[in-house]
Amino acid sequence: MALNKAVTCACLKAFISMPDVDAEKASLEPESVAFMETLIAREHGQGGLQNGFSPTSCGGDALSGGGTVIKTRAEDEEKLSTPPEQICPVGLHKAVLLNEVLRTAYSDTFLLPHLKDLCSQHVVLFLQYLQFLYQKFSQDTYPHRHGQRSPSLTQIMDWVCLLLDANFTVLVMTPEAKSLLLNLHSFVKSQVRLVSELGKIEGSLQELSKMKVNKDVGQYSIEVIELF
Hints:
This protein is mostly helical and 228 residues long. It is built from ten helices and two strands. β1 (62-63) and β2 (69-70) form a beta hairpin. The radius of gyration is 22 Å and the shape is elongated. 21% of the residues are buried. Pfam families: Nol11_C.
C-alpha cells in the first residue's frame, strides 16, 4: 500500500517537473487529450459563473445605516487577486499526465507524508492547475459528460485539500502563493453560498416531489404550481 502511494507521488513529481516540450513527446490516450483540448479551448470563451455564482460576488458586502456599501480590505484583495481569464498553467500533454494522477486511488494517511517532499514551486504550480480545473468544472457552461477520462470535481477538491494539509505552512511563507490562496478561499465561499441558497428551496422541492402528477393532461393544458 505504502509503495503504491510512493509511486503515485513519484509520478506526480516527475510530471509536474517535466518541461512541456518533453511532455509533448509522450504517447497518450486520444480521449484524454481530446478532453483537455476541449477544456483549454474554452479559456477565451465566456467567463461563466461558478455554479450560478460569481466567486467575486460572494464577499458579503456590508451595508451601513445610510445604505453605503462597506468593503473590507480582505475583500478588495480577494477581488483584485481573481484573474480575469482562466489560463491553464501547464501544457496540454502535461495536463493529461496530471489528470491520470488525479484519477488514481489513494489513501490520505499514506500519501500525505510523500506530498510534503514536494518543493514549494511544484506545489504552487499543481495548485494553480487544480484551480484551473475547478473553475472549468464549476462553470455553468461546462458540459459534464459521464464516462469521460477526466478527474471528477470531487477528486480535484480532494487533491486541493491534500496539498493544503501537507504544505500549508510552506505556502503561507511563500509570497507567490498569496493570491492563489485568496482565490481558492473565494471559490470555496462561492460553493458554500451555493449550498446555502439550495437549502432555502429544499422544502419547496420536497413538496413538489410529493405532488400527484396528473398524466391525463390531453393535448394541451396549463398548470399553475404555487410554492408559497
